[in-house]
Known about the structure:
Elements: H1 5-19, E1 32-37, H2 52-67, E2 71-73, E3 77-78, H3 83-92, H4 96-113, E4 124-125, H5 129-144, E5 148-158, E6 163-165, E7 170-171, E8 174-175, E9 183-192, H6 198-203, E10 209-210, H7 212-222, E11 225-234, E12 239-244, E13 255-258, H8 264-267, H9 275-287, H10 290-295, E14 303-311, E15 318-323, E16 335-338, H11 344-353, E17 361-362, E18 378-379, H12 390-404, E19 407-412, E20 418-419, E21 432-435, E22 439-442, H13 472-475, E23 476-478, E24 485-488, H14 496-499, H15 502-505, H16 518-524, E25 529-531, H17 540-553, E26 565-567, E27 572-573, H18 590-597, H19 599-608, E28 616-617, H20 620-635, H21 646-664, H22 668-685, H23 690-700, H24 705-714, H25 731-734, E29 738-745, E30 748-756, H26 761-768, H27 772-778, E31 783-789, E32 793-798
Parallel strand pairs: 1-2, 1-25, 3-4, 10-26, 13-15, 25-26, 27-28, 29-32
Antiparallel strand pairs: 5-6, 5-9, 7-8, 9-20, 11-12, 11-14, 11-19, 13-16, 14-15, 17-18, 21-22, 21-24, 23-24, 29-30, 31-32
Helix pairs in contact: 1-24, 18-19, 19-20, 21-22, 21-23, 23-24
The chain binds one RNA strand of 83 nucleotides through helix 7, strand 12, strand 16, helix 11 and strand 28.
Amino acid sequence: MKYSHKETEAKWQAKWDETKAFAAKNDKSKPKYYALVEFPYPSGAGLHVGHPRPYTALDIVSRKRRMEGYNVLFPMGWDAFGLPTENYAIKNKIHPRLVTENNVKRFKGQLKALGLSFDWDREINTTDEKYYKWTQWIFLQLFKKGLAYKKEMTVNWCPSCKVVLANEEVVGGCCERCNTTVVRKAKSQWMLKITEYADRLIDDLETVDYIERVKLAEKNWIGRSYGAEVNFDTSRGDKLKVFTTRPDTLYGATYMVIAPEHPYIEKWQDSLTNYDEILAYREAAAKKSDFERTEMAKEKTGVRLEGVSAINPMTGKEIPIFVSDYVLITYGTGAIMAVPAHDDRDWDFAKVFGLPIIEVVAGGNVTEAAFTDVETGKMVNSGILDGLEVKEAKEKIIEYLTEKGIGEKKVNYKLRDWVFSRQRYWGEPIPLVYCEKCGWQPIDEKELPLTLPNVDSYEPTDNGESPLANMTDWVNTTCPKCGGSAKRETDTMPQWAGSSWYFLRYCDPYNEEEFASKEALEYWMPVDWYNGGMEHATLHLLYSRFWAKALYDLGYLRDPEPYLKRTSHGMILGEDGEKMSKSRGNVVNPDDVINEFGADTMRLYEMFIGDFEKSAPWSTNSVKGCRRFLDRFAALSDKIVDKASPAVEKSLHKTIMKVTSDIEAMKFNTAIAAMMTLLNDIHDAGGADRETLKTFALLLCPFAPHLAEEMWESLGGKGLASLAEWPKFDESKAKDDSVTVAVSVLGKFQGTVTVPVGADEATVFAEAIKLEKVIARTEGKEIFKKIYIQDKMLNILCK
RNA sequence: GCGGAUGUGAUGGAAUUGGCAGACAUGCUGGUCUUAGAAACCAGUGCUUCGGCUUGCAGGUUCAAGUCCUGUCAUCCGCACCA
């Protein structure tokens, strides 16, 4: 059989489409399997060779599941709201909807060319009104549940995009999208209370099968830490509250620090003799971006509050209070007790300001550096805690503080609430109106979707309002509660909104009454296997788990976790080993590869390139190797013999075993290597029988489906290979009858002997002692021990 | 600084529980075919002074270490004053 990838691919893609071979049926008699890949943002650049890697991997899993008899849901859609489209639209004066349409068309064509077995009948698009109706609806449920609130806050502001960015969108102090340095700006924003779910987002990780690094990334991002809140009396007669994870070191607190934005600065104004100096420091801190602020981390700065001091509750000593930007207003209480002997930052600060460093945990040398070890030290200079270990001291002091009413146990998180407002056009309108009398009111759910009006210009206004703010017709409305005049919210939702629940919509994509029917959700959810980028572990993954939990709490979902299993793929790098980028000029275009070598080769190579979880550089030469394999496979149809040799039969069963288990373990590269070995074996044997080749075609089908179908058909296979039964192996046929056993003398390898499988030590030894090298090594020596691992090795010890 | 990962031939990478390091592929060398090239096919391919030596480096545990332990170096990624 001559292999022409263009013909073969066109033929089978058409056939799959016609027969709707991969449509997920609502057939509840079969066990379901929901495989999910992250839906792409349809950018103008088209598909990138990085995209097909995760898609092909889960396509392989999905195809195998279908062949194993599962009812498989493997859907695809478009996460199409977002900044690049809007920026492109502004620049080229095209409506973002049109830009999106074109990009989707391009992406879809490219994905189809890869022969991915998506159920295109369930395609969704986050910018579709019928879709974002439900994004808005879910937002309203969150609002009604008290999970959305408006807050005046300093936000990350990108002066170029003129948009507020979430912390997660700020990379190295710069806008994730345009790389402009981000500044801080006060703005009233809609926030979602993801922090209310912090504990559950951590604790429920125990119930799911995520790869460890994803769990760790989420845990670190949420950053839960246990400690205590302690109230310090001040000379003003009020109390200054701090959070600390080291209450055990309380005796060593020799000063306190508050954040520049701390409200007590105003409160204490009349007592502060250097108020102007403090205000000047605050202003200087506010001008710095977060990035500059951390850049300055090496040098500690600050100003002492003259006129107010605090009392260490354990020592009774008066201690000074400082304002310094190394304390953040957004974490804990915005104030700390400083223990320079046992905290690096406090130590640095104390050195700059000549503050006392009092050791309270023995074990280090606090004149040299802070001693922060919590495992080995013993408490000293600590009154009631003396002699205790750190852990014991922590418990005892918290008990004491609680009893005296000075403090209490407290848990804190690094996770912040989610800034949910964007001053942009191309996003879901937030379905709320503001009434002078009634405050913020949700619009009537019957009015959903609240659609994006057409505007003349998509550019944000200079004062940072969304372009929608200029649409007075749209903005002015009536209050759903009192009927009086009211104004719509003109901010839109962030790109993360649509992707926070899309996996639910796939279950029932055309439902106009609900975001998905309970029935569909209960059949398909949760997602059985979700693969996606590592970069989403702390963003999309966390957000969508949060929404799923909120919907669960509201009774819309049966399970509190949306994904049973989460895996992550490595990046595909350029041939030079660097990240692919236009500026480096090392981008490989998938269209070219498909055109020259075919989709099957592309798929195979993407999987053969290396360990799925690790990044790997592209190599055009290696692509050829995959094509060569397919050519040689196709040529097998000319090498049909009546009966396969025993060697081929054994190789076949070994390969079925290997491919079957490797797919489950995401070891696609070794699965392919196993099939290459089978091909070599058949080749060496001069061919194989029809049934062996048919089985081979089925094994290859998830990886290179077009050629596999062609082969299957030419060998007389019935129906589609893609829907045939997954091959079974016979373990007894995969077993070897004889095995080579390695022989060592004193741990050094000397040679091998071939013995029947399961041979005992005496048999192996009898053969081994005939080896020349073994004779030379053991001659005239006393053999005092033999170590034999059945079927593997024999080690002879002599002296 | 903290957290995570990775170091194996010329290259991408294989190698359950410690048990023949280098599967599979690329590249390279030689050959067959061809006027020639490409393709295809066949043979070879870690290094070696032929004793041996080899999984970043240095130790250790073990009959046996790429794999376990200690230390160290390098690279990549993420977070970044989170008290």
